[in-house]
Amino acid sequence: MIMANxxxxxxxxLMGFSDIWELQILHALLFLLVYLLTLTGNxxxxxxxxxxxxxxxxxxxxxxHLSLLDVCFISVTVPQSIDNSLMxxxxxxxxxxxxxxxxxxxxxxxxxxxxTVMSYDRYAAICFPLHYEVIMNPRKCQWAVRAVWxxxxxxxILYTTTTFSITFxxxxxxxxxxxxxxxxxxxxxxxxxxxVIGVSGFISVMAFMCFTSIVLSxxxxxxxxxxxxxxxxxxxxxxxxxxxxxxxxxxxxxxxxAFLKPTSDSPTAFDLIISMFYTVIPPMINPIIYGLRNExxxxxxxxxxxxGQFTKKTPYLSCCF
Length: 321
Hints:
Keywords: Cell membrane, G-protein coupled receptor, Membrane, Olfaction, Receptor, Sensory transduction, Transducer, Transmembrane, Transmembrane helix. By secondary structure, the chain is an all-alpha fold. It has a single domain, classed as Rhopdopsin 7-helix transmembrane proteins, CATH 1.20.1070.10. Helices cover 71% and strands 2% of the residues. The chain contains 11 helices and 3 strands; from the N terminus they run βααβαααβαααααα. Strands 2-1-3 form a 3-stranded mixed β-sheet. α7 packs antiparallel against α8.
């Protein structure tokens, strides 16, 4: 790793996982495998939810956008990390770091927002089945997705503007495989990072509100499901809700733990692993969870992989992508 003139460099130095060349190659290969699996799984979901007429309901429409977010989310950090490992050079210009922080924080918030929308969709479908198509009509679904992407952009702008308004006066070493905001704040030697803390507090309150909304939605969902007389009906309802609940719990718990715990002056492998659990793992497991738990998704995957023909799309949400 190039260590000379770190304090005077214009950009930053990402320390990554190891200084040992063999371990860097291993890291690059593992990340490449995870990246290819993630792209494959999420692109399959995007394709089949676009082409298959049986997958045009709002649930699959939101799942399609979750997969699109996952593809973008993992592409922000992993390819750069692979390149740094293969080139044995963790340097990153300030412009690259600014762009990465903006896209990363935008997509991170958009993931929280789309998961919240998906929980409301399940709540409407299970608790108000007779009014579901009115509650979640195509126009409302379009506006919900637009709000997700717009809120993510606003979050990214606020976070990036306040983060890079601070003065970096310490050695610009980031003990991560990407430009991590908590690590950037450690490079400040004054109190001008208080703006970032204010923005973080505001976003944390909004995230807590989203989490509360998700919890309330599932309280109503489970109380409704338990009143369903048939075992088959309960099983079908749980099969659509439990995967989403698992994804929400996993993503929010890992992200909260990573951002709320104090940053150490001597980062460990544990810190890097935790960061992987909210940056790399969720985009990879989302297609697996939704694909393996949903019969309609599995059937559409078989059609795609075996060269089957998709019939013409129904008009319900075909115009909303």
